Structure formats: C-alpha cells, structure tokens
Amino acid sequence: MLASNAVSELRARLEAWRRQGRRIVFVPTMGNLHLGHMALVRRARALGERVVVSVFVNPTQFAPGEDYATYPRTLEADRRQLEQAGVDLLFAPEVNSIYPQAVSVDSSYPVPEVGRDLEEAFRPGFFAGVVTVVRRLFDLVQPDVAVFGEKDYQQLTVIRAMVRDLALPIDIASVATVREADGLALSSRNRYLSAPERLRAPLLYRTLKQVAASAQAGEAAPAELEAAAMTELRTGTFVPDYVSLRDADTLQPLRATARNGVVLAAARLGRARLIDNVIF
After folding, report:
1. C-alpha to C-alpha distance for 245 and 263, rounded to whole angstroms
2. Does residue 34 have an active-site annotation?
C-alpha cells in the first residue's frame, strides 16, 4: 500500500491507474479507524479495482469550542489497518494541501437544502465545512465511486445532493451503520464515554427503534413520538438536541405518503455527542 501526504504523488498514482482502465473507489475518513470504517473499505473493494482512503481531520467542520484540537489522531494504527484490509493508497494530506490559501469554507456552492436544519441547527456551519472538504477531496481523487456510512445519514444525503446538483461523475454508495453487540453505533467519539455512560449509551438506539416501529404502525403523530422519545432520553440522563422523523429521501418532515422514513437523533451523554438513525 502506498501512503502519501503529497498531492503530486497521489495524482501520479491515480493517473497511472486510469491509464490502465482501473475503476477507482474512494473512502474519505477523519481517521481513528474502527470496524465501521473497515466495512466501508470492504464495500469499496467490491465496487472497483483500486481503493483510495483519505485520513484528514477537517478544521472547517468544527465550530469554535468543539474537539478539533483533541480529536483522536491515530495515523500509524490507521495505516496498519488499511494495509491489512487491502487498501491500495492512503492519502493523509496536511492542512495546507487541502486549504492552500486559507482555512475557510467555499461559498461558491451553497449547502443543499437537506443540510439546512437538524445538525446545522446545533452545529452552524458544519455542512458548509463538509461540502467544502468533500468537494476538494473529490477534485483531487476524481473517483468513480465514493463510499459513505449511513450512521451520518444527513451528511450522506447532503453529499448525494451535492453530487447531483453539480453533475459530478461520481457514484455514491452507502453502508449500513455498524454497531456494538448492544446496539451502540460505532463512532470515534465513543471513547469520550465514561464506563457508566457506556452502559447507558445503547438507550439511544433502543429509543429510535421504538419510534420507528411506532411511526410505521401509525400509533401516533410524528410530533408526539418525537416528544416522547426526547423525554425517554432525558430520563436516561441524555441531553438530546433533537429526535426527528423525516422522509428518508428528502429529509422533509415525515408524512403518511412517504415511501420510506428515517428517525434521526443527536444527544449528548457526558462529553460525547452521539448521533444515530433508524431507517424504516
């Protein structure tokens, strides 16, 4: 596996593969890799001949006071995992390779409508940072396919909208959320949980499963189910930001005519901010 932080080396290797007619699949990450990331890599290997993984902690998607400085950076361990998983190229750029002029968001393309509430309401500017870095990474790698996880469901929907709006020649593939045995979605930020908090953390997933089942059965109006879930989480010592039932395709508020639904949530438990969703 080639590991590089140089854009020139990345471009040279990619150009050689393109001349050979290789289908290139890209998995962008912020590192501190876990089994959820490895699921993305396995999916990528099934979709093309060459797999590129990036490790880059993107400063523009962190608000002041968030954990950019302390976000876990484990590049050497990540490299070993990716090599064992059969990745062809690890791209770990420096900040000035992605932001050569200044660390700032790109305002030339507005965040798609699907990214203008939920996470954005609690982390203003988050999706502007995501759109900026993903566009720049796409420009550098120019993959045939890019793979993202469904745990960050709103982010996945934003990226799909961006690709559609800009007519980028990239297929977006997704992988279902990978969970611990007790249901907790794998996340690099789970390490912020204390031992007692870790025992309480699966309540988030259990609550969302119940909301999804009740919504599918038509047991109550979405607003009632959302309010009951917020109460359940607070009783379990979470501090929820939102629990929201949405159309799984448009992320508009859920209506009876929707073909597919999703319930999304974000909640704090101690130092950790957990996000999760259940599609139904």
Report:
1. 4
2. no
Distances (CA, A) of 115 to 45, 118, 157, 179, 250: 29, 8, 8, 25, 10
Q: Which domains does the chain have, with CATH numbers?
A: 2-175 (3.40.50.620), 188-279 (3.30.1300.10)
How would you write the pLDDT of the chain (280 residues) with one tens digit per residue? 999 999 999 999 999 999 999 999 999 999 999 999 999 999 999 999 999 999 999 999 999 999 999 999 999 999 999 999 999 999 999 999 999 999 999 988 999 999 999 999 999 999 999 999 999 999 999 999 999 999 999 999 999 999 999 999 999 999 999 999 999 999 999 999 999 999 999 999 999 999 999 999 999 999 999 999 999 999 999 999 999 999 999 999 999 888 999 999 999 999 999 999 999 9
Residue tagged active-site, from 13, 37, 45, 135: 37
